[in-house]
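Predict structure. Chain length: 558.
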Amino acid sequence: MKKGSKLTLVSATICALALLASGCGSGSSTNTEGAEQSSGSRSSNNAVVSVHGCEPAQPLIPSNTVESCGGQVVDAINSRLVRFDDQGRAHNDLASEIKGNDDMSQYKVTLVDGRKFSDGTPITAKSFTRAWSWAANVNNGQLNASFFANIKGFDDLQKQGVPADAQFSGLKVIDDKTFTVDLISPSSTFPIQVGYGAFAPLPESFYKDTKAYGEKPVSSGPYKFDSWQHNTMVKLSKNSDYGGEVKVQNGGIDYKVYTEMGSAYSDVQAGNLDVIDRIPTSAVKTFMTDSMVQSYNEPGSGLQMFTIPTAMEHFGQDQEGHLRRQAISMAIDRKMLIDKVLGGLGVQPTDFTAPTIPGYAKHLKGSDNIKYNAKKAKEYWAKADAISKWPADRSFRMLYNADGGSKDFYDGMANSIKNTLGIKAEATPVPTFSEFRGNIKKRLYNDAAFRSSWSPDYPSPESYLMSNFASSAADGNGSNDGDYKNPKFDSLLKQAAMAKDTNEANKFFQQAEEILLQDMPAVPLYNPTNNGASAKKVHGMRLGWDGYPIFAELSKDQ
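Prediction complete.
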């Protein structure tokens, strides 16, 4: 950890939980051909760097942002108690200390001195306790509400009729710099969880007009918000009021919205866009040797899936539904699609996390259900038909957002399912990510599977499993968009949270995953590599442990 960034935690096991595996080290596979600076050119700390983006699905409120389009912006403008470096290691940020009691059921948080919001107001203990209470209050319908479920008083804040200004009973302000957090059950991962964006503090101005704030937020991070021209650009500038340890090497970020990845890549080649954080299908086989760009390709922590909602007919959480879900999964030739469509820029999954995460497992009971097996897929589909016949005229539909570069992969999956099971299958595009996520939130896709993906909010299996599959994250309270619920699965997550060390916690996480491999609420497809490219004049292009560009390190020649 960097000098001066020591993270005070209850035990060394928490630090171990925050470390990613060595596969996500500082070395990178890059192509820098043609990147030499021309005579007289110089890198500027004041230059604004343009980055490929997509339209945020929600206003820029931390507790309501669950997707990457808005998440990159929210992360850049908001500091939290802790921050993560490029390898997922935790460092204190707004906290000087997070100290747990003996059984990790209560934490005392002490803030650093002198930090303030970009509107000039100080960041105090109340900036956290009020923000977390607002996020968990049912009146506000926040998508990240479930992240606060383990704080005492959460259930009271989720009751209908609770006052709009009700506060967490488990949060106590001691003074401006200190507050305590009482948990419902002990949690060894709490000091890591608070690095997620939903735990950001909010200024008093937020509560005067939350709708207006979402369109023009106040900053506590290394960047401050300037403007948001919807469907075109979000502009950020270096925050001169920021007092933290992140050193910004540029004057700001222009987060440009693209609806087609090929256009974004062409703009990088032409020097009209500085950074792109994923590669379109058309360029996956050539970008590593493309002399017009600087390429980046490293192991990542993401997981691509598609979700089959529990409410979908013939796919419920019963015997028929389990058979059909497993059959669909085994009907997909992942290796062929990764090689031919992705150009090898991905690996076949073996669980519901990623190879760079501590606790990742290769040989869980049920992992064969996410391997291509045409014979077994047909067998399981026939067994499901014996319970309730799949209509011959019905098509198994998979929806995806057309602006995310997923068309070829989803068309390939549809063909693989069709050819293996002998049923109708189709991939159906939705024009934009914003529309796609909006319809999912409204539960308009209960008759079809839909694309889902995950980049962990903090480097632990818990982030994947709790966020996507816990009952507390269903019914619009989080990212469990298929509304999957299994009490045995939930119980194992609780046991993992109370574990005394990382190895014990990971055993419980893996037992929970074995339940998922049978119930298959979502179908894992592949773990993508973190790949991208930058224009030749750009310096410092790297993707962090979460797959986002490290904005602060970017600079470019004038």
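Summary: Residues 139 and 164 are 6 Å apart (CA to CA).
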